[in-house]
Amino acid sequence: MNLTSLQLLNRSLDERQLIWTIRFLFGISILLIIALSYSYHTINQELIHYSERVDHTQRTLIILEKTTSKFYQTIYHGRTYLLLRDEANKRAILENIRELNPLMDELDSLITPPPLNRRVKELDATMDQLYERTHVYWTDSTYSTNRQEQEALLREASVLIEQANRIINDLNKAETKLMHNRMQSRDNYKQQVYRYNWVIMLVALVFLSSSFILLDRELRRNNLYRIELENKVENLNRSNSELEQFAYVASHDLQEPLRKIQSFSDRLLLKHRHQLKDDALIMLDKINESAQRMQLLINDLLAFSRLVNPGYKAQQVDLNEVLEEVKNNLSETIKEQNAVIISAELPSLEAYPVQMTQLFQNLISNSIKYSKPEVSPRIAISYRLVGGAEIPDIKPAHKDLQFHRIEFADNGIGFSPEYAEKIFVIFQRLHGRDEFEGTGIGLAICRRVISNHNGYIIAEGQEGKGARFFIYLPLQPFIS
C-alpha cells in the first residue's frame, strides 16, 4: 500500500493529534491512579486502624475474662476461709488479690472510652470496698468469728459482689458489641481494599491497552510511511542520476554542436560578409545571439545540476566572510551602480561554503540588477534567531526547531505579491530579455541552495517599493 503526499500530510496532522491524545490519556491515568492510590491509602489506613482496634478489643476481653476469673476465685476462697479458717484458702486469697491488682490496672489502661472507663473505675472502687470490708478476716486471726458477724459480712459482701458482677457483665456486653462493630468495619474496609486493588488494576490495564493500541497503530503507519519514504528516496536517487546524466550530455554532447554553429556562423560572417545581403546578415546575427543565449542556458543548467550533489562536505562557515567575498566578486558592479550594502553581524553555521557564496551573490546581484533607474541600490542585511513556529508553511517536524533568520531588503523595483513563488521557478522571468539580462535561474539556484541546507526562503515585494528575501537556516544543522 502506497501513501500519497496528501496522506503523508494527513498522517502528520494525525501524529500531532496522537501525541496530544497520548498525553491526555497519560495525564488522566496519572490523576486517576493518584486519586485511587490516595483513596486506597486512606482505606488501607482505616483497615489497619480497625484491625488494631479489633486486636485491642480482643486483648481487653481477654484481660476482662482473666479479671473476672480471679475475682470469682478470690470470692470462692474468701467464703471458704470464713468457714474453715485454714491457711491454704488464706494463701489463695492473697495470691489472687496480688494477681488481680495488675489486671485491674491493665484493664483501666485498655478501656479508654469515658463511659466504659468510668465503669472500670466503679468496678475497681467496688473491689477496693469489698477488700476493705473483708480483708480483716483473713489478715487478723484473732478477729471475732461469731455467727452473726459472719452472716452480716456475707450479706454486705454479697451486695458488693452483685454490684461488681453487674459492672463486669456490662463491660463484657459493651466490649463484645464493640468487638462486633469493629470486626464489621474491618471486614468492610478489607472488601474495599480488594475492590480498589481491582479498580486500580483495571484502570492501569485500560490505559496501557489504549496506549498500546495507539502506539501499535502508529508503528503500522510508520512502517507504511517508511516504505513510501524508501520509494521516494529511490525515485529521487534515480532522478538525481538522470539529472547527472543530463548534465554530462549538456556539458559535452549539446555544447559540441552549439560550438560548431557559432564557429561556422562566425566564419560565414568573416569570409562572406560583403557578399551577403542585409537581411542575411541580420539572420546570421540572430543565429549568433541565439547560440550565445543557448550557451548561457546550458551553463546555467550545469550550475543548477551541480547543486544536487555538491561533491564536498559541509563545514563551519562564517557568513560575514562570505559576504566580504561576495562584495569583492561584485566590486566592479557595486562601484558602477554606486550600490550601498549595510549588514548586521551574521552568524557562523555548518554549510556548504561555495553554495553560501552562490546564495549571497545571487541575492545581492539580483537586487542591484532590478534597481530603480537613477536610484542608487541600497541593500540592508539583518539577522536574528527565531523559532520554527514563526516560519510560514513550515514542515510540522521543524516547528520545534530554531532557525537563523537572514533578511535581504532592497529599494529596487520590487514585484507583485502574486509572483512571490513564481520567481523561484527555474527560467521564470517577470520581465522581458530586452529590459533585464539573464536567464531567470538565479533565484531557482537560491532555493536549491536553501533546500540543500534544509532551510526555507520566502520572498515579499511590492511593485515600486522594493523586495525582501527571508532566509531561514536551522540552528542545529542536519545536512546529509
Describe it.
The chain has 480 residues and is of the alpha+beta class. It folds into two domains: 5-212; 310-474, 2-Layer Sandwich (Heat Shock Protein 90), CATH 3.30.565. 69% of the residues lie in helices and 9% in strands. Helix 3 (114-139) packs antiparallel against helix 4 (147-272). The two termini are 28 Å apart.
Q: Order of strands across the widest beta sheet? A: 2-4-5-7-6
Sheet having the most strands: 5 strands, mixed
Overall mean pLDDT: 79
The class by helix and strand makeup works out as alpha+beta
Q: How many individual helices?
A: 9
Helix content: 55-70%
Identify low-pLDDT runs.
1-13
Strand proportion, as a percent range, falls in 5-15%
Radius of gyration: 52 Å
Number of domains: 2
| Global outline | rod-shaped
**What is the β-strand count?**
7
Distance between the termini: 28 Å
* H/E series: HHHHHEHHEEHEEHEE
Detail the topology: elements first, then pairings.
Layout: H1 5-84, H2 87-110, H3 114-139, H4 147-272, H5 278-306, E1 315-318, H6 319-329, H7 331-337, E2 340-343, E3 348-351, H8 353-369, E4 378-387, E5 402-410, H9 442-452, E6 456-461, E7 467-474
Helix pairs in contact: 1-2, 1-4, 2-3, 3-4, 4-5, 6-8, 8-9
List keywords for this structure.
single chain, 480 residues, alpha+beta, Heat Shock Protein 90, 2 domains, five-stranded mixed beta sheet, two-stranded antiparallel ribbon, 9 helices, 7 strands, 69% helix, disordered N terminus
Can I get a quick summary?
The chain has 480 residues and is of the alpha+beta class. The protein has helices at residues 5-84, 87-110, 114-139, 147-272, 278-306, 319-329, 331-337, 353-369, 442-452, and strands spanning 315-318, 340-343, 348-351, 378-387, 402-410, 456-461, 467-474.
